[in-house]
Amino acid sequence: MKGVVFPMFRSRMLLLFVAAVTISGVAQAQFTGYSPQRGIQRQQAQAQTGNITMSGVVVNSVTGEPIARAMVQMNGMVSRVALTDSEGKFQFENLPETQAMLMAHKPGFFSEMELRQNMGRVKPTVISAGMGSVTVKLSPAGVVTGRVTTADGEPVESAGISLKVRTIQNGRRQLMNRSGASTDDDGYFRIGNLQPGTYYLYSNGFSRLSIASDEVYSPAYYPGVSDVSGASAIDVRAGSTTVADLTLRREKAYRVSGVVTGLLSNQSAQIELLGPDGENLPIRSGVREGNIFELPRVPAGSYTLKVVSQQRVNVGGGFGAGVTGQGVPRMPQLYTGSVPLNVSGDVTNVSVSVQPAATIPIVVRTDFTNKQTNQAASVSIDNQRRYQQNVMLHLIRTDGQRGDNYAQMSGSPDNMSLSLQNVEPGRYHLEFMPMGNTYVRSATYGNTDVLRDDLVVAGGDSQPIDVVVRDDSASVSGTAHCEDTQCWVLIVPDGTIAIQPRQTFVDPQGSFQQMGLAPGSYRIYAFDRLDGIEYANPEAMKAFGAHAETVVLSAGQKAQVNVELTKVSDQ
Question: What is the pTM of this model?
Answer without folding.
Answer: 0.73
